[in-house]
Amino acid sequence: MIELRNVHKSFGSNHVLRGVDLNITKGSSMVVIGGSGTGKSICLKSILGLVVHDSGTITLDGEDVKKAERDSFLARFGMLFQGGALFDSLPVWQNVAFRLLRGSLKRPKTEAREIAIEKLRRVGLKADVADLFPAELSGGMQKRVGLARAIAAEPEIIFFDEPTTGLDPIMSGVINDLIREIVVEMGATAMTITHDMSSVRAIADNVAMLHDGIIQWTGPVADMDASGDPYLEQFIHGKADGPIEAVR
Amino acid sequence: MIVLLSPLAAIGRSTLGTLAALGRLALFGGRTIGHMVKPPFYFKEILYSLINVGYLSLPVVGLTAIFTGGALALQIYSGGARFNAEAVVPQIVAIGMVRELGPVLVGLMIAARVTSSIAAEIATMKVTEQIDALVTLSTNPMQYLTVPRVLAGLLMVPILVGVGDVIGILGGYIVGTGSLGFNPATYLKNTVDFVEMRDIVSSLVKGAAFGFIATLMGCYYGINTGRGAQGVGRATKGAVEAAAILILAANFLLTSIFFSI
Asked: Which among A121, B27, B102, B170 is least buried, having the fewest CB atoms inside 10 angstroms?
């Protein structure tokens, strides 16, 4: 289980996280929603240690993430980045098999390539994509490759950072369904950050709304529409009027 | 009173800022050296960097050196004619290229070609979250990106300087024997007789130092880039400026150490 307790993070005078409390239970899919610039990505990156939080505690199965041994800690995670973050100097299969070609999970090259092609198939890409370079792929294909890379080492926990940003509605639906299928199939714990409500409904078991640096509401996705929380309702319905200022 | 103190406060702020930046850079350099002797070693990335920094820089280094050597021969000949010292062209071209112009010009060309490309590449990786992706894939960006490039700078730039020295002398030889009327055999003999081992060692040591500075600056500015295209542009510009200035400063320091009387 991932637990965030009273997590604070500031950049100069900009207090992004002002006491975030959040529980993500093992095997569940948590989706964190909120407007642009509300600190969703910072929250996610703080768990991974990509950003060091100022105060509060973040624990994974009871162990403080700041004190965890980095390699074994990170080996438990896979992550799909917003823009894919594929290494443009490497062909697609080496991107997918990156973790399997070096470090503690290193395998023979042929085996790593086979696993990469299998993962590419799992996300709906043909084997002939394996030798292309990321720049030769469309946005949707890059997301799929990013997803294949995130699941290549079969991690226990998968993070998805804005998985449908920049995609058309049909491709967004395909990616959402893929994420849901893969998370269920692998039994992984998932955390997704998004402001795309179709992603929320397709991916989430539980939803948390981040606003003003704190979690304003959290609960099962089935309770979201009848939450009665004015922040959540304004966000879900995309209204300009409400407690969330339209201009931030 | 406040009006009087504000310029002093600005000086204080900029001094503190400069010292903090130097401290960060020194720590970055120290960590890079520390990681050079610590596994894992990414041999494929090291090989790629050796080729990129060394082999692919040969044309630009060669062209710079040959034209500089030729121009130097012409300058010494015309300048030396004022006090009947035209005959010293081979000796001065040799000493000028090996001690000073070879290392400095190669260093500056590496700053232009390699530092800029390293800074732009790493900065782009930073703004497109590829560096974060490396971390999540249990790969230390310093070990994977910085160490191979800085190691390549340390190893390949001295070789490039050696090649540049030879080609620069060759440029002087071509001009000297082709248009200034020097006897080829005498020109070569004077060159070989005049260059000392200390000149060659200082040239290669300068090459290693300049290679370290040029690649380190590219990595440092790339990893510490700001956001977006403007951030990448600033990082690249800052890296080349810092590398060029530090190379010239290091050249003065090393010249003082090697040739102080």
From this structure: B27
